[in-house]
Amino acid sequence: MFYKVHGRLRHHAAGAFRRALLDGTIALQEPDGPEIIMSMKRAVLLETGEVEWSEVCYCQIPLHHERATVYDLYFDNLTTEVVKGYEEHEGQPFMDYLQRLPAPKIE
Q1: Domain ranges of the chain
Q2: What is the pTM of this model?
């Protein structure tokens, strides 16, 4: 099914999320890593501070695996709504926003 997803980014974890998106960590995750990457490329930052995107998921519980492995680490208040297909969303491109953040300190 296709879902419209909303969530509030945990800003203290944004740098780590950016790193995981760009360094291949998430992309290599099976079975949903490539879909997560593409979803974040579709995502936008809304004026409310929420992030909105569309994503396909075949779990009985929407985004069950994605939440357990990625999204619940970086987002709060995640909600899903069934939609007919991928949607375009109005707002600031989320990946552009992440790129402008200061680089996280590597410990």
Answers
A1: 2-100
A2: 0.90
Give how far Cα 11 sits from Cα of 30, 39, 51, 62, 84, Å.
Answer: 26, 19, 12, 24, 30
Question: Mean pLDDT across the stretch 30-34?
Answer: 92
- Asked if residues 93 and 8 have their Cβ atoms less than 8 Å apart, the reply is no
Phi first, then psi: give them for residue 63, nearest 5 degrees.
60, 30
Contacts of 6 (CB under 8 A, 6+ apart): 50, 51, 52, 77, 78, 79
DSSP state of 51: E
Tokens of 25: 């960590």
Q: What is the pLDDT of residue 101?
A: 81
